[in-house]
Specification:
The protein is largely without helices or strands. The protein has two domains: 33 residues, no CATH class; 51 residues, no CATH class. β3 and β4 form a beta hairpin. 15% of the residues lie in helices and 10% in strands.
Length: 116
């Protein structure tokens, strides 16, 4: 039996927006700990997140730049986990229906060949 090695990447990005993706809290680099948070970030009962439209715009721009599929339907999923750094005990993810689907970047090698 022969095996084929397949390696995938999970890539995280920080979009250059003035506020977080689901709250109006600042994203200023280098701020003191616990100074850029809101009731949404803390997961207090009764608060609802509001999606950052600028994050959507920048996500779509990135997707177009890498030849990705921009999905007509997008769903955010709640991934439950328990870590001391997350008082909400969940992370919002896009496992099944992301804004931006599969894309690619072509890289030219030293010998002139291109790899995708």
């Amino acid at each position: 039996m022969q095996w084929e090695v397949v390696i995938g990447l999970e890539i995280h990005v920080q979009l250059s927006t003035q506020s977080k993706i689901f709250s109006g809290s600042s994203t200023a680099y280098g701020a003191e700990p616990n100074t850029q948070m809101s009731t949404v970030d803390m997961g207090l009962p009764g608060v609802l997140p509001v999606f950052n439209g600028e994050a959507l715009k920048k996500s779509v721009m990135f997707g177009l730049a890498v030849g990705a599929k921009i999905n007509n339907r997008s769903v955010f999923d709640r991934k439950n986990y328990f870590y001391p750094d997350s008082p909400k005990a969940y992370q919002i993810s896009q496992l099944y229906y992301p804004i931006v689907g599969e894309g690619h970047i072509d890289i030219e090698l030293d010998n002139g060949d291109k790899k995708r």
